[in-house]
Amino acid sequence: MASVPLNYYDLIDACALPGCPVCRLCESDARRYLDALLYEYVNEKETHLTVRASRGLCATHSAHMIEFGASVLGIAILHSSILYELLNIIDTPAKAPSAFARLRGGGSPLADRLEPTAACPVCEALERAERLHLRTLAEHLDDPRLLEALRASAGLCLPHLRDALRAAPNAATQEQLIALHEAIWRKLKSELETFALKYDINHADKAMGAEGDSWRRAAQLLAGLPAVRGLRRR
User: Fold this and answer.
1) How far apart are CA 116 and CA 207, in angstroms?
2) 119, 54 in Cβ contact below 8 A?
3) Which distant-in-sequence residues (6+ apart) come within 8 Å of 164 by Cβ?
4) Which of 116, 138, 154, 223 could join 55 in a cystine, given CB atoms 3.0 to 4.6 angstroms apart?
5) What are the distances in angstroms from CA 67 to CA 36, 38, 75, 94?
6) 199: buried, middle or exposed (CB in 10 Å: 19+, 13-18, 0-12)?
7) Rounded to an integer, what distance in angstroms lies between the CA atom of residue 125 and that of residue 67?
């Protein structure tokens, strides 16, 4: 096999996990970035400038940060720096509003100055990882090992499938992705129908098989993991 990027093998391994393999990799990448932020770079000037500009992390990644119970010191250091920035903002006199602003009325100059001037750094790291994994998948889908791993997986979530189709280098790769996911979707639809049939009280004597969690897999397939494809707000 020709030389492949390291994340090629990560993609193959992720295909064996439940759910969208790109979601799984991105979730892991975001956690590694957050771990490094709290342990390795927490005292770096650049880190402090970044989190001050972003006014901290988004709600999703703040929740993940709190899960790192052993890194409470890093959390305290970063948030002390952010609060220092916010206190400086409210202690600095605001410029007098222009005549136009006075005529327009409403608004709050202080609220505007408290707005973030940069995105959540973990979201940005996640999006970089996402682009990298999608590019590798699209460019190496003709490799039999990756193709077979993806075929045996739960498939890409719908948002990542759209992204992969856009990243595909040619029409042949797009067709391959579509054919692969059509087979996955048809199998899942059949499982959902079997689940609905067995769930009916008139068929309560039928034992539930692999279709028992098809409803959960279907919801995840269409939406992706919340930590990856959920709200991304500054």
Assistant:
1) 54
2) yes
3) 22, 134, 137, 138, 156, 177
4) 116
5) 14, 12, 11, 38
6) middle
7) 19
Query: Tokens 């309560």 identify what position?
Result: 204
Eight-state DSSP code of residue 17: S
Cβ-Cβ contacts under 8 Å for 151 (sequence gap 6 or more):
180, 183
Tokens of 166: 């856009």
Which secondary structure element, helix H or strand E, spans residue 11, and what is its range?
helix 6-14
Tokens of 190: 């059949």
Total residue count of the chain as it appears in this document: 234
How high is the pLDDT of residue 136? 96
- What amino acid occupies position 218? A
Name 72's Cβ contacts closer than 8 Å, sequence gap at least 6: none
Distance, in Å, from the CA atom of 142 to the CA atom of 138, rounded to the nearest integer, reads 9
Give, in degrees to the nearest 5, the angle at Cα 109 between 81 and 114: 20
* The pair of three-digit structure tokens given for residue 169, joined into one six-digit string: 């280098």
Structure tokens at 4: 């492949």
pLDDT value for 234: 41
**Measured distance CA(180)–CA(153) in Å, rounded:** 10
Tell me the backbone φ, ψ of residue 3, rounded to 5 degrees.
-60, 135
* H or E stretch covering 192: helix 171-199
User: Is 126 in contact with 22 (CB distance < 8 Å)?
Assistant: no
Rounded-to-5 percentages of helix, strand, coil across the chain: 75, 0, 25
